[in-house]
Amino acid sequence: MKFKFVIPALLVLGICFSFVYKLADDPFSDLIKRLQEYNKKYAQEKVHLHLDKPYYAIGDDIWLKAYVVNTLTSEPSNISKALFVELIDEKDKVKTQLKLPMNGGITWGDFKLPDTLSEGNYRIRAYTQWMRNAGPEYYFDKTIKIGNSWANKVFTNTNYSFTKENTTEKVNAKIRFTDKNGQPYINNEVAYEIQLNARNITKGKATTNNDGEISINFANTQPALYKSGKIVATINLPNNQKIVKNIPITATSNNIDVQFFPEGGNLVQSLPNKVAIKAVNAAGKGEDVTGVIVDSEGTEVNRFETQHLGMGCFVINPQPGKTYIAKVKYKDGSEQSLALPKVQTSGYVLSLNNSTPDKIIVKIMMSEDLIGTNELKIVAQNSGNVYFVTRAPSQKQIITATIPKKELPSGIVQFTLFNGANTPVGERLAFVNNTEDRINTTIENLKPSYTKREKVDLNLLTSFNGKPVRGSFSVAVTNTAAVKPDPENETNIFTTMLLTSDLSGYVEDPNYYFLNQDNKTLLDLDNLMLTQGWRRILWKNIISNIPPPDTFKPEKSIGISGTITSYGGKPLPNSKVSLFSSSGGFFAIDTLTDAQGRFNFDNLIFTDSTKFIVQGRTAKNKKSVDIKLDVVPGQIVTKNKSTGDLEVNVNEALSGYLKRSNNYFDELTKRGLLERTIVLSEVNIVEKKNPAQNSSNLNGGGRADYVVTADMLQNCVTLVQCLQGRVAGLIFEGSVPYLMRNMSSGKRPMQIVLDGMNVDSEFLDNIQPSDVETVEVLKSIGNTAIYGSQGGGGVLIITTKRGGGSTGSIFAPGIITYSPKGYHIAREFYSPKYDPATPDNRLDLRSTVYWHPHIVTDTAGKGPFNFFNTDEAGTYRVVVEGIDMMGHLARAVYTYEVK
Question: Which residue numbers delimit the TonB-dependent receptor plug domain (predicted)?
């Protein structure tokens, strides 16, 4: 993957092709220089996540390793030092977000899937702040199925059928409701609501029949706008329990979208043109079709047939004065006539032959009127790095050249044809698969078979060009009897870094193109290049000197920064700013603002859920200041582009895995190693209003010996005045609160908790009574015990009216609370160790047998690791992925038997 910037000289001469690259300062040379400068200044990042499994169950852990590279160098990125990883549900809402510290382009972490989640098609999305400038299309965004058997009472199976009446699409959905054992729910009322593109279309009620089924009919009157959605079905179970199921609607019709893509971008009259075809169904998956090409006189000029996932190609030579249509025939026997793209009377055709293993043949064809008119140029680049530049006079109608693939990097190479005005007039993608630029991995000491619970002691051996290589590697071991692989649809470090990260839209079965290197696979991959859009480099931006957005700066460390101003908005230089936190021990630091009133606390390291207090004072120590923190807005969640990966019946698709995982979770529950949410029967309770709803009280809001509410704090100047004499046993010395019972035994002050943070007693003087929502006084041992030794002197829980916000909340002049996103602390994967001398009779049913995110190979290219097999027989699959310091990639799969 790592290649130096090159502009090679003439490689092979074709038909009268004169390759001359002049380094003079002409407009085209300037354009190439601008591209280089643009790429250097705005180098992008790519991210790949290696997951331990392709799918999961509620109760599982998702273990992940992140690899982030710099597209300029292809090496592990040092642009960013933090990575965001999100778990997103079917409603396009972030359920969990991790912020992982990153060093040298690698990091790792994990998600716990609690039983409060429901089954569905979730997404794992990863990006850096710097990547946000390029947009969500660049992010790692993978759809994963998460099933639910362990904490699920209702299972659904849905089948859709479609009809069409004029322009209205009609859908019938048959939904079957069963329990965990497959027994139908009979005569249960179901309320349902149909939502298409988040808009409510219709709703109603139905009753399940003897098979546990209901039938729902609905119409889509705007098929161009509403293409997918969900059914929200609520079934009533005994004891008035209601279970809500969200069932995806991946399509509302059987329609197939067929598109035609002329090679190079244009159909040109009187020139042979290759045209690619792509047919996609309403759910986003490829559908194979056949057909014929007919001219305007009704003459058949060619036939076509898609070869793989609805993609194929054919050749046509458009003649003057004629138009062309494609008569497409679908699997159900129906036909449709579609017009081919408009034929241009003048233009260029850029054609590539990428079928040979060692070279790419480039061919330029032009209409007769363009012969001898101007000089043509070709640029071949990958992620903005130019690998080939050449010029050619347009003296011949056909110009060819041959480029050795060893001069090109692995991945997608973009060929662009420029005319004499340096305007792009043709573009073509080619995929280069140089296997010699990858890390070679082998596993030493791996036996073909083992016994249950046997120790597997291995050495990972890595090399590049025959020499040992140092790198970071992740290893996942699963039992294929429980976790069945889907090799063609796998996402791995090759599919992400070399293919999908440089293509727009959804790529179906990405690993299919890496499993074999036969002629059919190469042809299918080339058809993918012809039909999938490019998005990494936009020449129009280079030509027009339009820089990319840089709203989001690379995150090098965690910092808290902002501006101190007067109430009128005037910056206040030399103001003192203090930062406090009591999470994990008391922390305090001071700084002064600069001439613009700016302050910055940089290079902070803290975990998630850490709370801070920022205090500002003028140079004359006055409190009358405004603190404006620099808060980076969160990333919006876009719609899932991988519609073809959505599964309507997730639990059924994962039924085998769920059955095994259910046994595993039950075993852990018996041992007390797994927490489970207990759902109680519904009880009607007359609500008693909680006076401290927003409290951080560890006992629960309002559970205190006395609660002082906002209406009691209206007629006093300071908070101490409000509390003095109001609560029995509470006294103050200065502004320090004490319980009277402690005055004679050590004189221990009360602990003060402000919006969830432990603060010193001096803060009481800074808090305006009008900003306080409640003050909870904890005196008795029953209420203070939860605070341990800190609560020995009693506790004051102060909740402000605006406290606790992650974006910063003012609760007193010159003071603000802030809860920024901190680093996630990755857990260690539990791998049991079995000793024959101390037998362990507990069942071991792990589906992920072993996970190690960071195996570092030494100077000899070796990285040892070991683990124990489980109690389940089967074929165990070892997946290794990794990267070295030069950006070379590694992936390999090994198997062994457990008997």
Answer: 708-795
pLDDT per position as a tens digit, 546-567: 887 888 999 999 999 999 999 8
Q: Is the domain of 770 the same as that of 839?
A: no
Quick one: average pLDDT of 509-533?
A: 94
Record the pTM: 0.85
Is there a domain that residue 718 lies in?
A: yes
Neighbours of 395 (CB within 10 A): 11
- Give me the CATH number covering residue 875: 2.60.40.2550
**Do residues 517 and 433 make contact, with C-beta atoms less than 8 angstroms apart?**
yes
Based on the domain organization, do 799 and 835 belong to the same domain?
no
Whole-number Å distance between alpha carbons of 400 and 511: 32
Residue 669: inside a domain: no
766 and 837 fall within a common domain? no
Helices (H), 799-898: none
Instruction: Give 715's pLDDT tier (boundaries 50, 70, 90).
Output: confident
- Chain mean position to CA 859: 34
Among the candidates 593, 610, 629, a domain finishes at 629
| CATH code at position 730 | 2.170.130.10
Quote the CA–CA distance of 127 and 141 in Å, as a whole number: 9
Average pLDDT for residues 510-532, to the nearest whole number?
95
Residues 129 and 84 placed together within one structural domain of the fold: yes
Decide if 64 is inside a domain. Answer: yes
In a domain, 683, yes or no: no
Q: What is the mean pLDDT of residues 585-604?
A: 90
Cα 182 → chain centroid: 34
- Supply the range of the domain harboring residue 620: 558-629
- Tell me how far apart the alpha carbons of residues 632 and 561 are, in angstroms, rounded to a whole number: 11
Longest dimension (CA), the chain: 109
Please say which residue of 603, 629, 655 terminates a domain: 629
User: Tell me: the pLDDT tens digits for 222-261?
Assistant: 888 898 999 999 999 988 889 999 999 999 999 999 999 9
DSSP string, 412-478: EEEEEEE-TTS-EEEEEEEEE--GGGS-EEEEET--SEE-TT-EEEEEEEEEETTEE--EEEEEEEE
Please list the alpha-helical segments (H only) found in 690-839: 719-723, 781-784
Examine the pLDDT at 17 and tell me if it is beyond 70. no
Q: Do residues 641 and 143 touch, judged by C-beta distance below 8 A?
A: no
Mean per-residue pLDDT of the chain: 88
Q: Are residues 774 and 873 in the same domain?
A: no
Pairing between β-strand 213-220 and β-strand 168-178 as defined by DSSP bridges: antiparallel
**Cα–Cα distance between 775 and 767 in angstroms, integer?**
12
DSSP E strands in 654-779: the ranges are 706-709, 730-733, 736-739, 751-754, 757-759, 772-778
Residue 781 shares a structural domain with residue 832: no
- Taking the CA of residue 260 as centre, how many other CA atoms within 13 Å lie in the half-sphere pointing to its CB? 25
Sign of CA dihedral 41, 31, 422, 499: negative
- Whether residues 807 and 865 share a domain: the answer is no
The CATH number of the domain where 128 resides is what? 2.60.40.1930
Please give the Cα distance from 735 to 354 (Å, whole number).
81
Rounded Cα distance between 888 and 634, Å, is: 33
Nearest Cα neighbor of 473 from 889, 53, 45 is: 889
Is the pLDDT at 462 greater than 70, yes or no?
yes
838 and 755 co-located in one domain: no
Average pLDDT over residues 82-101: 94
pLDDT at res. 21:
41
Give mean pLDDT, residues 875-881: 97
Strand order across the 848-856 sheet: 449-450, 889-898, 874-884, 471-479, 848-856
Tell me the C-alpha distance between 329 and 506, whole Å.
24
Q: What's the start-to-end Cα distance of the chain, in Å?
A: 39
- Sheet of 256-262: strands edge to edge? 256-262, 273-281, 311-316
Asked if residue 441 lies in contact with residue 890, where contact means CB atoms within 8 angstroms, the answer is: yes
Q: Are 707 and 691 in contact (CB under 8 A)?
A: yes
* Mean pLDDT value of segment 842-854: 92
Q: Is the pLDDT of residue 292 over 60?
A: yes
Domain count, the chain: 4
